[in-house]
Amino acid sequence: MKQPFIGFIIGVLLASIWPKLVLLLTPFVLLVAAAYRSKRLLAVFFMLAGVIWVSGHWFVASQEALALEQGKTTRIVTGRIGAISHQPHKLDFDFQEDGYPYKLKVSCYRCPFELQSEDRWQFKLSIKPIYSYQNPNAFNYRQWMIAKGFGAQASVRVNAPENIMLERHNQGMMTLLSDQLPATQFPILRALVLGDKSGIAGDDKRLIFSSGISHLFVVSGLHVGIVAGLVGLIFYWLQRPLLMLNWPYARNIALFTGLGIATLYGAMAGFQVPAMRAVLMVMCTAVMLYQTRFTHVVHYYVFAILMVMLIKPLAFMDMGSWLSFSIVLALIVGFAGSNRKSWLVVLLKAQWLAFCVGGIVLLGFDQALVPMSYLVNLILIPVFTIIVMPAVLAVVIWALCFNSVGLAWLEVGLANLIMLLHEASPIITWSLPVAYEYKYLLMLALLLAILPWALGLRAVAVSLALAAVILPLEKPQPGGFELTVLDVGQGSSALIETAHHHVLIDTGALFSNGLGIVDFVLMPYLRQQGIQRLDMLHLTHGDNDHAGGAEILANMADELVSQDHCETLQWQYDGVRFMRFQADGHKAGNNGSCLLKVTARSGKSVLFTGDIEKEAEAQLIRQGVDLTTSVLIAPHHGSKTSSTDEFLDEVAPDIVIVSAGFLNRYGHPHEQIISKYQERNMMVYTTADKGSVQVAFPPRQEPLVVSTYRPNFGLIE
Fold first, then answer.
1. 16-28: b (≥16 Cβ within 10 Å) or e
2. What is the pLDDT of residues 89-111, one digit of tens each?
3. What is the dihedral of CA 464, 470, 473, 477, to 10 degrees?
């Protein structure tokens, strides 16, 4: 193996983890170059070249993307439509604007236009920066989107007269397949063939992802390889009569036909990294067989990874690229030396290596490790390889040539398979309860588990895994608690942690695609905190931005409280007093929000107000409820319909936390309300500016400790 190539690959991988690494490596490499002369020095320089390759592309991409400080703009744009995703009540599509290097991710709500890929359009768009929810150890959506070539997100002003189609692109194979597989009728087949999962129900998406089989329901390298192999076999079989005439080209025609179909399929899927890797590997296989000489498969693997790094320099800033190549490498190692073992032993070994290596990658990207995914993939990958994908290829060809009866039958069969998985979901989606602080212990355990048996490290691996699961986290002292107001965009969600209890207040929104804040913020955060059960799920009221994820989290909570059942009640958890109440005469809507006050032994407290407005505020004052608090969660996200002078004087908080979305369309929090808070010398923290806000309430008379996830960014200060 050429050392410079390996050095370049290492440099790209390191820079993908830390794009600014070049600033630290450059002086080191220059010192080494000045002090030593070695054959390995060239590999070091190539490693530096890999770092510069990624860091340079990232610097350019991040500088070209719309900065957070630039806010919203509205302008008329022209360009070409890319991939289209059909969502309930809206369309999402990629848009390459003329004269701009980056793409826009555009949403068209209740879209009246007939949009097709490659069409040229003029739109009037509301454009804003790409924003990530700012929570501890959270997924960096902005970095992920920029690495994929997007510079901003936008929405179409659907009633604007400037929206005009400029050019209709001729229908191609992608359009024909899209027409044959509408998301409303064939959501699963559309995901398998086109990689568009928008039609799959939210519960099904959640199951597929959490059970570790999402790679089976996208256009992955597995699918591209299967299609290439099947087409190659078909073309070889069709040439069998010619073999009687000593036809010498049957194998070559079959090989390169399969390669051509794989390339076409990968291009139709947008040449995402798994598809690109598969096409390159198929190409290498075709060349190897054509030359009739042996070249180790690792050389082709290195060639594929190098080509991906050169074509898509930022590909490895995405977890999917790491998973794709690491699992393929694990399978290559697992199947090595298979001639000396039974096929079952080889299969189990290869799948075990893939599971452990994939687990290391998942934990590195703060994802869950699902033990049963080993068994589920062991069963389903052969099923998809031998049965599902050949059937999909056959019925799609039949539908394009004749009718879609086969599509309907296959869709029903796949839907039944997912229903069967739902029945076993409590088992196949259970993840190891590993807190963020201990994930590296489990990563090390998985690494030791795949090392050779002769090293005798299996016992150490088991010990480390048990330690990662069993070791306790630091908890608040009895009588004290910790408040975490999460950044959930335009909505609300907060967690109260006492010494031994957990109360979640509100869940944030559920999106039109069936997924929501629960999937992207709450569940990852709870998992990283080692929380598997909630003592209470308290919903202030039923609006989507507060209770959208209630149904998903209901099974996780011992008690569910809503505004419909908000009886006045007081209780204690670990010496911390809780009191819930409601404004008399208000049982529904914003004013019927179910309030919660949590008080530490020191007497310092936090008050959750939901979306109450001035009518409920006045009623609560008349009721004589003790509203005085240290920390106020601002009513109705800082709307000017709330936070009256009388209410603020009664509550008199030292700190106000506003849960509101970045550049939200409602203008929350209102400038007048912020001025009211500041006039009363209240410290104001807004999740849109500061990210998640954590407040430690000690049990003794000590100052509150406030920390924010993003302390140096602010738009209202």
1. beebebbeebeee
2. 888 999 999 988 899 999 999 89
3. -150
Determine the residue type at 474. E
pLDDT at 133: 93
**Across 492-575, where does the E strand assignment appear?**
494-497, 502-505, 536-538, 560-561, 569-573
Give, in order, the Cα–Cα distances in Å from 370 to each of 12, 406, 427, 593, 691.
Answer: 29, 34, 9, 38, 29
Rounded to whole angstroms, the Cα distance separating 61 from 549 reads 34
Instruction: Give CA–CA dist 492/355, Å, rounded.
Output: 36
Name the amino acid, one letter, at 526.
L
State both tokens at 589.
Answer: 């809507």
Classified as helix, coil or strand, 422 is: helix
Contacts of 179 (CB under 8 A, 6+ apart): none
Rg over alpha carbons for the chain, rounded to the nearest Å, is 28
- Which residue reads 């998809």 in tokens? 384
Q: Indicate the DSSP class of residue 633.
A: E
Q: Mean of the pLDDT values across residues 687-695?
A: 94
Q: What does the alpha-carbon distance between residue 193 and residue 219 come to, in Å, rounded to a whole number?
A: 6
Q: How far apart are CA 505 and CA 358, in angstroms?
A: 34
Give Cα 174 to chain centroid, integer Å: 26
Six token digits for residue 321: 């690229």
What is the rounded average pLDDT for all residues in the chain? 88
Helix (H), strand (E), coil (C) string for 370-402: CCCHHHHHHHHHHHHHHHHHHHHHHHHHHHHHC
For range 680-690, the mean pLDDT: 94
Residue 717's pLDDT band, with cuts at 50, 70 and 90, is very low
Sign of the CA dihedral with 318 first, then 322, 327, and 329 last: positive
* Nearest-angstrom CA–CA distance, 367 and 210: 10
| Amino acid type, 330 | A
* CB atoms near residue 477 (< 10 Å): 16
Report the SS3 class of residue 580. strand
80: helix, strand or coil = strand
As to burial, measured by CB atoms within 10 angstroms (0-12 exposed, 13-18 middle, 19+ buried), residue 38 is: exposed
Which runs of consecutive H residues, i.e. helices, occur in 548-691?
Answer: 550-553, 614-623, 645-651, 671-679, 687-690
d(CA 105, CA 149): 10
Please answer whether residues 611 and 641 qualify as being in contact, where contact means their C-beta atoms are separated by less than 8 angstroms. no
User: What value does the mean pLDDT take over residues 679-703?
Assistant: 94
Q: Containing H/E element for 565?
A: none
Token representation of residue 251: 């194998």
Taking only the tens place, the pLDDT of each residue in 609-657 is 999 999 999 999 999 999 999 999 999 999 999 999 999 999 999 999 9
**Cβ within 8 Å of residue 712, ≥6 positions away:** none
